[in-house]
Write a structure and sequence with these properties.
Layout: H1 22-26, E1 31-35, H2 42-56, E2 62-66, H3 69-86, H4 88-91, E3 94-95, E4 102-105, E5 108-114, E6 128-132, H5 139-146, E7 156-161, H6 169-175, E8 180-185, E9 192-193, H7 195-198, E10 203-207, E11 210-213, E12 227-231, E13 240-243, H8 254-267, H9 270-278, H10 291-295, E14 313-319, E15 323-331, E16 334-342, E17 355-361, H11 366-375, E18 380-385, E19 394-396, E20 401-404, H12 406-418, E21 422-423, H13 428-438, E22 440-446, E23 453-459, H14 464-475, H15 477-480, H16 494-498
Parallel strand pairs: 1-7, 1-13, 2-5, 2-6, 6-7, 14-17, 16-21, 17-18, 18-20
Antiparallel strand pairs: 3-4, 4-5, 8-9, 8-12, 10-11, 14-15, 15-16, 19-20, 22-23
Helix pairs in contact: 2-3, 8-9, 12-14
Amino acid sequence: MEEFGFTEAGEKFSFVGREYLLQPYADEHPYQVHKKCTQVGITTKAIFSALFSCINLYPKGVLYLFPTEKDVRDFSRTRVNPIINYNPEISQWVNDADTMGLKQIKKSFLYLRGTKSRSGAKSIPADKLIADELDEMDLFIYEMARKRLSDSTFKHIELLSNPSLPDFAIDKEFQASDQQHYLLKCPHCGQYNDVNETFPDCLVERAKDDVILACFKCRKELDKSNGKWVAKYPSNKDVRGYQYTQLWAKNVTPLEILKEYRKAKAEGKLQNFYNLTLGLAYVSAKDRLTVEQVLSLRDEEFPENFFQIDGNLYMGIDQGKDLHIVFKKRCKGKILTYPVVEVDFKELDKYMKYVTRCVIDALPETRNAKAFAERFAGIVYLNYYNEHQKDSYKWDDERMIVQENRTESMDASHCLINEGDIVLPFSDSAIEYAQHCHNTAKKLYEDEETGSKRYVWVKLGPDHYRHADNYANIAMSEELSDINNHSEDIGEDLNEKFAKEED
């Protein structure tokens, strides 16, 4: 294994203290996923893999992707170029090593590209795609870049990233893999330990500033160098997945990790700790709804005559293969929420005799959506999310459209569900609605070049009902503005709440 030579720091490469890297470095699986913490040596592994493969294996080359062009510049200058320069067995084959985004290696090429622009990876043929920090990339451009492998006989893929949200990007890819975990064998009792799984109990404080990584069975100290990779799902042979944690990293002590954990917990900043230190996906309860949480809002006394009871009826429609619809009606301090599915636009008209206002996703079927709006002018509005729109909704009666900030509107509809302000029926569509609500989560994006930060609700699975719910809330936004003034009605008997008010 020592043929890898020197690292980017000019140090002789060694697996001492990094025994967990032996198997990943030797692994030749064509589709690899590395869900990692920081500073465990996986990026160095990816560089060696790219360079040696260009020399010995790939005729077309390697496309190495990053979130931004700044990442490309920094990576090329501080990681790739030093490894080339420190290793004569590599540098002898490299032309134009100082070129930032393109390096000719023997008869092959290493392309370094950011994913902020579609043109960066549009016309590059490659045998292998490496995506570094997948969770921070534009995933649409990443998927487009994967198509650059279509003409290759290899079609190799290697993904590496700190995770962010559960079920998103690298965590989603890892879940589809064989899920290799590095288990430490206890030198005292022989028990194998997944220390991430037993965290924080795997950290035992024997005295002040004396913390050990401990076996969950005998509670004695573990040896970080004595472990083996074990697949949780060995039958998932198409994708090889590795999970890395600083708990068995060479240069991080258990005491440092325990202090970092306690500080993060006290400051309410556990996401960074789990993502970067443990290499685990994490989302706080306030940023993602659970299926159970949403289903708890069902009530057996949801009125069967929902459409006939008094009150304005609002309708939100999200387009997809089917039309997912959410109806909403205020009733005694609660929002009755009724999800249904229709297969085409012709089926929508039957509801319109009840509807006060409807908001429908303008895309992808713009023609059908516009025709629907024209049939019910003044009631139906086409929705366009506008990230530059702040605070208020912008209604345009002439063009039959409404615009709003996507994140702000999703925040508002999330809050209504999270605080239990809605009531759902017991139905199959309510179960699907709950799953769709669970399939979105709030993620922080930071632009490294400008320093600007913004939150975005990201899709983790089918989410049509979640957006239909949002559109219904936009439709009833004027009524929702005074929802807090009706809190005194919330505790009333459901039979009374749902009863039709007498004239």
